[in-house]
Write a structure and sequence with these properties.
Blueprint (H helix, E strand, L loop, with lengths): L3 E7 L5 H11 L3 H6 L3 E5 L2 E7 H5 L2 H5 L5 E4 L1 H13 L10 H10 L7 H19 L8 H13 L7 E5 L3 H9 L7 E5 L3 H8 L8 E3 L13 E4 L6 H14 L3 E4 L16 E3 L3 H15 L2 H15 L3
Parallel strand pairs: 5-6, 5-8, 6-7, 8-9, 9-10
Antiparallel strand pairs: 1-3, 1-4, 2-3
Helix pairs in contact: 5-6, 5-7, 5-13, 6-7, 7-13
Organism: Rhizobium redzepovicii
Protein name: Glutamyl-tRNA reductase N-terminal domain-containing protein
GO biological process, one term: tetrapyrrole biosynthetic process
């Protein structure tokens, strides 16, 4: 039986912004690598490849492109790492829930009979139970951080107007339905194709929202509105449209959750523009991680015990 290994580079081995840019370049390779029997996990914080040893080693040049990377050897170690990733134990925001869906989507590209696919599915299943038993859930998740930052700006003396959410992926939907969307008079999802988005979302949004195209924003200034950018799907043309629209809107705050900031800070200097790399965001991440750090050893031990009990393929 061929050895199962993983090669990876993540945000702890380089800067988060460098990692995000590299990941964006490698992500389109996922389908092709899956056809070759390899699991490619790309998020804003990591690029990782798993599969049989010879096949994984053959991808080093095209996937890592000069980035130094680490190796995980053996099915037990691979399963442990994937389960810890799925549980949020390897995330920049410890305990964040979105990584599990990202890993599940990557695994879904694989032939279900592949050994790495069976190992990955076991790791995901185990991570769910371990996370719940150890209560390893981020108290300062993205939506909570956004809520706190907006509330801080409002200061209790300003009546909130509208929340604009640019992007309707899993993070955008969560922000609209369970987090800061409830603080505002109304919520607007900004999209280039409103009709297609309504059809795609169906009934998944839990509250009613309006939809606008980017060019429709900012007919008048809205100093009591807030904007959250929750998409990475931005080309130069779209970036220019968004930038002009937000300058016209002049909102209370613009929070950019994109791993690669959408706007050029110098170009929007007169806006209150905050990215994930600014101190006020990083401070809240540190508070979250301080709270969960003590639970990390118990979570890792729980995962290891359950993986061994489950019989790693």
């Amino acid at each position: 039986m061929n050895e199962i290994v993983g090669h990876y580079v993540d945000y702890e081995m380089t800067s988060p912004l460098q990692m995000a840019r590299h990941s964006a370049q490698i992500k389109p390779m996922g389908v092709d690598l899956a056809r070759r029997g390899l699991l490619l996990l790309t998020t804003c914080l990591r690029v990782e490849v798993y599969g049989e040893k010879f096949d994984v080693e053959s991808t080093d040049i095209e996937v890592f492109r000069g980035f130094p990377h680490k190796v995980v050897e053996g099915s037990n170690a691979v399963a442990q790492r994937l389960a810890e990733i799925s549980s949020g134990a390897k995330s920049q925001i410890l305990g964040e829930p979105y990584i599990q869906e990202q890993l599940s989507k990557a695994v879904g590209l694989l032939d279900p009979d592949l050994r790495i696919c069976r190992i990955s599915r076991l790791a995901i299943d185990v991570s769910c139970g371990s996370r719940e038993r150890q209560r390893f859930t981020a108290p300062f998740n993205y939506d909570r951080i956004v809520c706190d930052m907006i509330a801080e700006q409002l200061g209790g003396s300003v009546v909130p107007d509208r929340l604009y959410v640019i992007g309707a992926g899993m993070l955008g939907r969560e922000l609209v339905s369970t987090g800061p969307g409830k603080m505002f008079r109304s919520t607007v999802v900004v999209t280039r194709n409103p009709k297609n988005l309504r059809k795609r979302l169906g009934s998944r949004l839990k509250i009613g929202v309006d939809m606008m195209r980017p060019g429709e924003i900012g007919c008048i200034p809205e100093p009591h509105s807030a904007v959250v950018i929750a998409t990475a799907d931005v080309n130069p043309e779209y970036q220019a449209v968004l930038q002009d629209a937000l300058l016209r809107l002049a909102p209370l705050i613009v929070i950019d959750l994109s791993s690669i900031p959408v706007l050029q800070a110098a170009a929007v200097a007169r806006l209150n523009y905050v990215t994930m790399y600014d101190q006020q965001f990083l401070q809240r991440i540190a508070e979250n991680n301080k709270y969960l750090m003590s639970k990390l050893p118990q979570l890792q031990s729980d995962i290891q015990t359950r993986l061994l009990a489950g019989g790693i393929p």
